């Protein structure tokens, strides 16, 4: 049992946690945004059309045989479903429908108009000898008629039974099969295809996405197998170049896309806005998604790792479209992350940590996580994943992902299809299977197969629709969009089946009749049918840009979206209630432009490339001027070349349930005039086994390494906070360095966690003075100086950040009073405890106007804590200033008077909203820590509310790795998933545990008012990741101080996506007190930990960004304003 000392009891009682922790309001963990919940009483946007009314009676029946290879236990993709294609096959203006099937016949339905369809009976199109996955439509021979291509796979090991088929449209719904004739009868396990012109020669080439069969093979073995080109060719996707009358030629190798993968999602579109069509493949399993960027010379290069920072692990469907109308596309990839606590804990296994580190560290692959990913385009050609911030990370076992403006308000919404026929990944089923194998020599007897097969859950699910709230990357999950549509839905296509100007949906379900939904929106629209020539083929990958009073929109004409499916090749633009489209610009696939003005809405406008008057360039809105406010300095141009080193160490090996690293919180930097020449110098903190470094500024603004570096003797310590200040009042700047770190520091003696004071002996020469500080060891991060007792010298507050190997035990913090140049520990006298929290930031200011300096603290699992100074005491007074209920994972503070009322405002950097936890005051995130298993180490239990009880965030597998007794107590995953926290750990142990809560992870401006402080969430870009540092200065000369901020935190446990979406930001402070993000040259995509300003006399000011385990970045500010160094 861990003792709870009196100071800790005091700390918890101050937070007011004890009465709250075991009394929950109860509901499941939500993935929607903070401002939910949209009305459940809204009329459905879509209405179901019955098979009897439409004639669409297609039923995708899946036959199973557990005693053969025709089941999911033998062929893992057995429940991957099939697709559907929509397109006008007879040029009557009505989109027809072609359904794929796995073990049943495919089916074509002719659109008769007025929601009537009739089946086209054609044995060729039924393809009963094939297992159909993806279906696509394109005018392959450019005769003006859409043809059909099916990607084939299935459990057969005979490649002849898997050859893809091409159905050439001969008119009047007559087709002939011609895949071999055209050279595109691919025999790998194909999943989907897309026709597009990759080489710019005017005809359609073909990309075939394939899925390998190595899911049961150890990855190192697969890597070894793939060294043989012959094996690789059987596992790779294929690119076929259209050579006209000669047919198609396989150019996979020369195009640079030879690679094995598990492709399920496909998009062919211009990802990087260079006018060339790229290829995105969403891969299942361990192979990262491919982002093949078209080089324009017939080759592609996979730039996934260069352009993104984390991606989905089990990639399913994908779509690429512009969600916020900034004319740059986002990328959505769906996984099978389940939001419901019980189902997530029973149906999904934990991340294999050894595999995670093998993929990311040994193979240097991108970081992949078992969640959906929404890659937000930051305008630089790079993407950051904002799925958690937008509430889109968990949509259940998902297949289709579509981004399209279904409600006609000019912003694209999101549709996701869900459901799997049976759950082969159910944990209890997998345990039972393994037990049966173990007891029967490695195989399962036939008499047990049926019983075991029945154990797999079969749960039909509703599809999900997220309404775009207006282009600010916020979405409302509308549960009423479709009514009751629970099924096993796979491929989905949209088209205007009834020609009323909006997008209807058709859905291919396993073991159910296909769904058809009519869109009932009444908003205005413009449809664009882009053709290469009169009565000729659609101009695939042409782009359309339209301008209305609502703003700009753009789309690219590519029918392949979502999962295994093909959309009607007509572009749809919703324009809400506008009556005219002011400008319509088309960038045709050959690179030329055309323009139309004042186009009437509510029409389908057919534009033919050959009939247009072409212009030399597109709209001016695409010529985005670069913001010259900040100039990034390359490594070769930077005034200092410095790289932080942090010795690799896996904290999670021993602290399995630790949510994120405690040993990778640095480095920090300090700026001050170290050598007394009137110029700002720079100290850059070092990592473990790396000494810090002091650089002197020269009169010309350059820097030299200081000749004396006494901190080299302390290289074993990790530098965290650092501060230049004059402790001995001799007129020069001394240096205080905090020694921090996590459990890795316990390898050494306690001296590595002793803070250091380096005395400036003149001219910037320093020597460590060990006699002026109290002797104590603590992992600290924060030091701030102020003369709190008004005796003319500087006192110090030093904040303890973490307790190595004992998270979340509160470390010691110190208030050090300067008495004649010697620091005395007065913490107990002033605060009554050393245990003030896991301090990440501390700032001094006079908050109540009594001419005494008060102290504001922020940290992990802490509220914003305001300590008002009294007579030799500090009293926590946050509640009376409106700062109660602010517990978060705070990282930084900035104090300044932004609203000009004479009272300090508080800018607080938090974890940010882009996280998987989403705590709120109504639904907090809890933490309990105790010796639950009776072993030596403290055990960490994160908890949330679910159905009127507290439940653990982590699952049975990882929890039992930390606490093995859980396996015996809960032999079944279902038992653990059904149990409350109290049932798992016991009321007494929980009552005696360290207890914390978090209610907000939003970075926030607390603005002073007559009633204390009013919380104002910072904009979207400031919520992408933790904010580790701010600077305030007037950047646009309007008399108001603006904000700059940076931050990330790259090291988390493998089931928690790392916090890596931050790139730095500038927020302009508006006259009404709000904040507006403005693009700039401040681009800090690495693990940025600090931000400092250096003034130079003959050169622009510098911004310094130290990165953990990476090169320090430097930026020039293109202005002459001065600012407070924060």
Automatic annotation (TrEMBL):
Domain annotation ASPIC/UnbV: ranges: 541-606
Keywords recorded for this protein, A-Z: Signal
Gene3D superfamilies registered for this protein in UniProt: Integrin alpha, N-terminal
Annotated InterPro entries: Crtac1, FG-GAP, Integrin_alpha_N, UnbV_ASPIC
Keyword Signal among UniProt keywords: yes
Region (Disordered): 29-49
Transmembrane domains' residue ranges: none
PANTHER family (alphabetical): CARTILAGE ACIDIC PROTEIN 1
Name of the protein: VCBS repeat-containing protein
């Amino acid at each position: 049992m861990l003792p709870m000392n009196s100071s800790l009891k005091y700390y918890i009682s101050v937070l007011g946690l004890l009465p709250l922790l075991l009394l929950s309001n109860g509901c499941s963990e939500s993935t929607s945004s903070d401002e939910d919940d949209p009305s459940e009483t809204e009329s459905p946007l879509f209405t179901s059309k019955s098979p009897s009314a439409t004639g669409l009676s297609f039923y995708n029946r899946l036959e199973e045989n557990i005693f053969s290879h025709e089941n999911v236990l033998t062929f893992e993709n057995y429940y991957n479903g099939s697709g559907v294609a929509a397109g006008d096959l007879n040029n009557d203006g009505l989109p027809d429908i072609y359904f794929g099937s796995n073990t049943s016949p495919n089916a074509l339905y002719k659109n008769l108009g007025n929601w009537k369809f009739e089946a086209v009976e054609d044995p060729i199109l039924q393809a009963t000898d094939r297992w159909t996955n993806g279906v696509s439509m394109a005018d392959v021979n450019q005769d003006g008629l859409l043809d059909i291509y099916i990607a084939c796979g299935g459990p057969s090991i005979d490649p002849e039974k898997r050859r893809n088929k091409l159905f050439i449209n001969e008119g009047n719904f007559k087709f002939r099969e011609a895949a071999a004739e055209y050279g595109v009868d691919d025999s790998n396990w194909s999943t989907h295809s897309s026709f597009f012109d990759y080489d710019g020669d005017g005809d359609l080439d073909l990309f075939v996405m394939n899925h390998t069969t190595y899911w049961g093979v150890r990855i190192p073995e697969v890597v070894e197998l793939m060294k043989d080109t012959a094996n690789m060719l059987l596992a790779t996707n294929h690119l076929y170049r259209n050579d006209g009358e000669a047919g198609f030629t396989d150019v996979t190798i020369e195009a640079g896309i030879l690679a094995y993968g598990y492709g399920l999602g496909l998009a062919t579109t211009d990802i990087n806005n260079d006018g060339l069509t790229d290829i995105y493949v969403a891969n299942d399993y361990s192979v990262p998604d491919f982002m093949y960027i078209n080089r324009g010379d017939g080759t592609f290069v996979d730039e996934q790792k260069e352009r993104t920072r984390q991606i989905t692990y089990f990639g399913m469907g994908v779509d690429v479209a512009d969600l916020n109308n900034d004319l740059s596309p986002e990328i959505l990839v769906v996984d099978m992350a389940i939001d419901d606590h019980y189902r997530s804990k029973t149906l999904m296994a934990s991340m294999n940590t050894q595999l995670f580190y093998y993929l990311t560290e040994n193979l240097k692959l991108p970081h992949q996580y078992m969640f959906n990913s929404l890659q937000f385009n930051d305008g630089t050609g790079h993407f950051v994943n904002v799925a958690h911030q937008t509430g889109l990370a968990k949509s259940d076992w998902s297949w289709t992902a579509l981004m399209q403006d279904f409600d006609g308000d000019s912003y694209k919404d999101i549709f996701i299809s869900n459901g799997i026929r049976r759950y082969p990944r159910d944990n209890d089923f997998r345990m039972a299977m393994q037990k049966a194998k173990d007891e029967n020599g490695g195989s399962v007897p036939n008499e047990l197969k049926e019983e075991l097969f029945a154990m797999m859950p079969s749960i039909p699910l509703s599809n999900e629709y997220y309404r775009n709230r207006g282009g600010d990357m916020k979405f409302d999950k509308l549960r009423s969009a479709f009514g009751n549509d629970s099924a096993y839905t796979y491929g989905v296509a949209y088209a205007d089946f009834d020609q009323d100007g909006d997008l209807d949906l058709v859905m291919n379900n396993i073991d159910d009749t296909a769904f058809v939904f009519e869109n009932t929106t009444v908003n205005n629209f413009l449809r664009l049918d882009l053709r290469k020539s009169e009565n000729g083929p659609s101009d695939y990958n042409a782009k359309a840009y339209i301008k209305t009073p609502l703003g700009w929109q753009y789309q690219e004409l590519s029918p392949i979206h979502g999962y295994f499916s093909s959309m009607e090749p007509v572009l749809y633009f919703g324009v809400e209630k506008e009556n005219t489209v002011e400008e319509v610009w088309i960038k045709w696939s050959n690179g030329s432009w055309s323009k139309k003005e004042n186009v009437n809405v509510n029409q389908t406008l057919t534009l033919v490339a050959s009939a247009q008057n072409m212009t030399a360039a597109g709209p001016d809105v695409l010529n985005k001027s670069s913001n010259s406010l900040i100039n990034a300095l390359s490594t070769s141009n930077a005034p200092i070349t410095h790289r932080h080193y942090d010795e690799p160490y896996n904290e999670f090996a021993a602290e399995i349930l630790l949510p994120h690293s405690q040993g990778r919180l640095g480095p920090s930097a300090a700026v001050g005039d170290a050598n007394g020449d009137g110029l700002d110098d720079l100290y850059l903190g070092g990592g473990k086994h790396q000494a810090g470094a002091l650089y002197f500024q020269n009169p010309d603004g350059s820097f030299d390494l200081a000749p004396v570096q006494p901190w080299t003797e302390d290289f074993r310590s990790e530098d965290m906070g650092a501060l230049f200040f004059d402790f001995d009042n001799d007129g020069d700047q001394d240096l205080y360095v905090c020694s921090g770190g996590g459990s890795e520091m316990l390898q050494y003696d306690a001296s590595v966690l002793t803070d250091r004071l380096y005395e400036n002996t003149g001219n910037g020469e320093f020597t460590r003075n060990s006699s002026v500080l109290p002797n104590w060891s603590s992992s600290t991060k924060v030091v701030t100086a102020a003369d709190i007792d008004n005796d003319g010298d500087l006192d110090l507050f030093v904040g303890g950040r973490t307790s190595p190997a004992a998270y979340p035990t509160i470390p010691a913090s110190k208030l050090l009073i300067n008495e004649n140049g010697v620091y005395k520990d007065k913490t107990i006298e002033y605060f009554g405890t050393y245990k003030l929290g896991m301090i990440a930031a501390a700032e001094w200011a006079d908050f109540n106007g009594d001419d005494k300096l008060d102290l504001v603290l922020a940290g992990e699992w802490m509220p914003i804590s305001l300590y008002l100074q009294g007579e030799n005491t500090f009293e926590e007074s946050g509640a009376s200033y409106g700062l109660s209920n602010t517990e978060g994972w705070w990282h930084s503070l900035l104090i300044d008077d932004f609203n000009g009322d004479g009272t300090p405002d508080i800018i607080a950097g938090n974890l940010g909203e882009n996280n998987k936890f989403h705590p709120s005051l109504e639904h907090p995130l809890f933490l309990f820590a105790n010796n639950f298993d009776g072993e030596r180490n403290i055990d960490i239990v994160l908890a949330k509310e679910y159905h009127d009880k507290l439940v653990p965030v982590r699952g049975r597998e990882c929890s039992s790795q930390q606490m093995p007794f859980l396996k015996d107590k809960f032999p079944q995953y279902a038992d653990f998933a059904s149990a409350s926290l109290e049932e798992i750990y016991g009321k007494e142990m929980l009552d005696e545990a360290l207890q914390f809560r978090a209610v907000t992870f939003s970075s926030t401006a607390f603005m002073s008012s007559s009633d204390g402080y009013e919380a104002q969430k910072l904009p979207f870009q400031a919520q992408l990741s933790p904010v580790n540092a701010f600077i305030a200065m007037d950047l646009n000369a309007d008399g108001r101080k603006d904000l700059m901020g940076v931050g990330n935190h790259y090291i988390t446990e493998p089931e928690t996506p790392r916090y890596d979406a931050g790139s730095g930001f500038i927020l302009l402070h508006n006259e009404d007190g709000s904040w507006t993000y403005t693009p700039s040259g401040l681009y800090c995509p690495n693990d940025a930990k600090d931000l400092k300003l250096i003034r130079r006399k003959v050169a622009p000011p510098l911004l310094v960004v130290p990165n953990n385990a990476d090169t320090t970045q430097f930026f020039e500010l293109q202005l002459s304003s001065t600012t407070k160094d924060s």
